[in-house]
Design brief:
The protein is of the alpha/beta class. The chain contains 9 helices and 7 strands. It is globular, with a radius of gyration of 20 Å.
Amino acid sequence: TPLRFMPPELMNYQGRALVIDPDVFAAGSVNELLDRDMQGKAILARPRPGHNGDPDYIATSVMLLDCAKLQHWNLRKDFEELFELKRDYDQWIILADQQRASIGALEPEWNDFDRLTPDTRLLHTTKRRTQPWKTGLPIDYTNRIPVPLLGKLLDNNGFRLPLRYKRHPDPRQEAFFFALLQECLDAGSVTPGMIEREMALNHLRRDAFEVLRQTPPLDRVMQDMPVSVTG
């Protein structure tokens, strides 16, 4: 996750960088961000006040960076401070240590949390339990389970029952992902063999080829979105 702070250094602190999480998908062109007037800001990102109990939370999952203004970002130094307990990870990841005046706001459509509308430019599938490429697979991340619910997840022998990824509540977001995957197949950037390997590793749902056959082309998926559903 901290690698999101490395692009300015990689670009010799010149030009602009657009940083996105791997579970963010483009529903439109992002080129206009690279030409946007940043009004002197070093960073544009979406505010998410109140998330995780922080009133000034900044979502760094999508960031537009003016690399020349971020010459104090040095990943080796930052990691050294982290391991020396001079830097707090939770504060680092939400830019709490960055001068607030250097951060501008991105509109919600540039980091749309689990919402797909005609205005969405970057769809961010933040709810891991319903990420549409994992439906039906065993959950492979650490679960945070409230203590009152823990008993319901144990069988009679005290072993925890396996949890699985659920289907996304918005069928269009599932169709959107698989339409993008089909475009990658058509372009040759993804091959059927790659899909089979990812299915064998439980990185991709086992019915992926069946879902691909049933998914309409991307332009049809994008045509009919009068309502969005938040998962």
